[in-house]
Amino acid sequence: MKLIDILKEIKKNNKSIKVKDFIKYVGNESFFHILFLTTILTSIPAPAWGFGTSTIPGGIITLILAIQIILDYKHVVLPNVIGNIEIKTKYFKEKYIKKMESLTNTLKKYSTKRFSEIFNFNHSNKITGAVLVLQAILMLIPIIFTNLFPSVIVTAISYCYLIKDGLLLMFFWILGTIVFIMYIFFLKYIIRYLKFLSNKFFRTNYKY
User: Fold this and answer.
1) Per-residue pLDDT averaged across 143-159, rounded?
2) Of 18, 54, 36, 32, which is closest to residue 138 (Cα–Cα)?
3) Residue ranges in 56-165 assigned as alpha helix (H)
4) What mean pLDDT comes out for the span 165-170?
């Protein structure tokens, strides 16, 4: 069942619902809705902000959810303090649901289901989880230049799951692995360049 239909059904049958019960309704897709929403802002090409720390919150969330995906959880598992929060269904306003439906229909126009059978492959979630862990590690490194591409890959993989594009998913599996290897290889050069910039503009005395 799609998220829009789930929201409509919950609004129709309940006055309120706990966060953990809502997550159970959404099921496996809950991982990718959360990942998409938490990384979309840091996936937009823009000047780096927060001196490389902007992706740390998204990196933490990505790492936690990636581990749950690898462990084959059926839906996101939350701490009770969050899971037991009650959401009033009166906040599921019809106008917002219609806007979400309109956005979903727009995305469908630019989406294609290809190799969707890969989502039924036993190890596809584990591969996805492993690639997400690699991106989370890069997102957690508080250095400028490690922000954008890992965040984009997490957003893209989430999008692939939501639109069921298996071909695009495999592409981002490969790209995510290559990006991780390249970042690790070039990390010492990035650090050396940052020390050079710091010495030049902030009159520090780093050796590089």
Assistant:
1) 85
2) 54
3) 56-70, 80-83, 94-109, 124-140, 148-163
4) 93
Sign of the torsion formed by the C-alpha atoms of 185, 188, 194 and 196:
negative
Q: How far apart are CA 197 and CA 203, in angstroms?
A: 9
Q: What CA–CA distances, in Å, run from 199 to 48, 139, 189? A: 19, 25, 15
Q: How far apart are CA 123 and CA 128, in angstroms?
A: 9
Q: Residue 133: which of 50, 44, 35, 51 has the closest Cα?
A: 35
Per-residue pLDDT at 208 exceeds 60: no
| Domain spans in the chain, listed from the N-terminal domain onward | 3-202
Coil/strand/helix, residue 102? helix
Would the pTM of this model clear 0.85, i.e. be above it? no
Query: Residue 1 has what pLDDT?
Result: 47
